[in-house]
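User: I'm curious whether this sequence folds into something compact or stays loose and floppy. Could you predict its structure so I can see for myself?
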Amino acid sequence: MIRHTVAFRLKHVHGSTAERDFLQAACELAKIAGVQKFECLRQRSGKNNFTFGLSMEFADEAAYAFYSNHPDHTTFVQQRWIPEVVEFMELDYVAPVP
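Assistant: Here's the prediction. I'll summarize afterward.
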């Protein structure tokens, strides 16, 4: 299992229509085959500058690669993520080897 997470900050004003539209578009990524346990989250800690997070799981590397290369994902990255995200941090987790 791979847990793919990304914390990010948008250029949009908090509570704006643009912010809401971006988050709705991001949630559409949950429809890509292989995406499991998709969550769109508001970050609440004052320990960093990020305001939102996305989290999802994939059964294996093949499912993660399918998602990464899927046209809906690549289009979202080019048309929404790159122009609207100010900063981000991506983390991909796997269970530790015992």
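Summary: The mean pLDDT is 96. Residues 71-84 form the longest helix (14 residues).
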